[in-house]
Amino acid sequence: MFSRCEEREFIQGKFKGPVVEYPFRDHNAPKFEQIMALCEDVKGFLDEDKNNIVAINCKAGKGRTGVMVCACLLFTGVCHDSEEALNHYASERTNNGKGVTIPSQRRYVHYYGHLLKTGLVYRPKPLVLRTFVFGNIGTNVGGIYAHFLLF
Predict the structure, then answer these.
(1) CA 67, CA 34: separation in Å to the nearest integer?
(2) Per residue in 12-50, pLDDT tens?
(3) How many domains does the chain have?
(4) Which of 5, 39, 58, 70 is catalytic?
(5) Which of 10, 103, 114, 116 makes the best surface tag, with the fewest CB within 10 Å?
C-alpha cells in the first residue's frame, strides 16, 4: 500500500505487506522526487511476484492518488502518454470522468510523461528566495491581516 495522505498515518499492522508513505498536501502536486521514487517502488514490488497488488490512496482517492497512479501507468508502460493515463484513471475511478482535476496536478502528470518520453534526466535546482516586496496589502484596520505560508 502506498499512501499519499499527509493528514493521516496508516497503521502498518492493518495491511499485509509493506505500507510506504509519500505524503504531500491535499490539492497540491507532489515533489518530482516523490513521483519517481513511488514509481520505482511500485514497479519493484510488482516485479517481485506476479501476484503482488498495489493500492495507492489519499484522503478522497482522486487528486493525489490520481497523480501517482497516472505516473505509474506511464512508468510501467500501461499508458503511452499523459492524456491517455489521465483519461484511463478518470474512467476507471469516477462515474463522471473527472479524475485528476487540479491544474497543477494534471501539469505534473504531463511533466512526468514528457520526462519519460524524452529520456530527460531530472536535476533539481535550488531556488533561493532573497526578498519579498509587497505593495499595499491592506492594514490591520477592521481585523484584516495577511497570512503567508512558504513551502
Answers:
(1) 11
(2) 666 677 777 777 777 778 888 999 999 999 999 999 999
(3) 1
(4) 58
(5) 103
Q: What angle do CA 10, 32, 131 make, to 5 degrees?
A: 110
Residue 144 falls within a domain, yes or no? no
What residues in the chain have per-residue pLDDT under 70?
A: 1-15, 135-147, 150-151
58 included as an active-site residue: yes
Which positions ≥6 away from 35 have C-beta within 8 Å?
67, 68, 71, 108, 112
CATH number at residue 25: 3.90.190.10
How confident is the model at residue 71, as a pLDDT?
Answer: 97
Dihedrals phi, psi of 86, to nearest 5 degrees: -65, -45
Give the Cα separation of 13 and 86 in Å (integer): 32
Q: What residues have CB less than 8 Å from 90, skipping those under 6 apart?
A: 66, 97, 98, 99, 100
- Does 139 reside within a domain? no
Establish if 149 belongs to a structural domain. Answer: no
Would you call 22 exposed, middle or buried from its count of C-beta atoms within 10 A (0-12, 13-18, 19+)? buried
Q: Is 87 exposed, middle or buried (0-12, 13-18, 19+ CB in 10 A)?
A: middle
Look at residue 133 and tell me if it is in a domain: no
User: What pTM value is reported for the model?
Assistant: 0.75
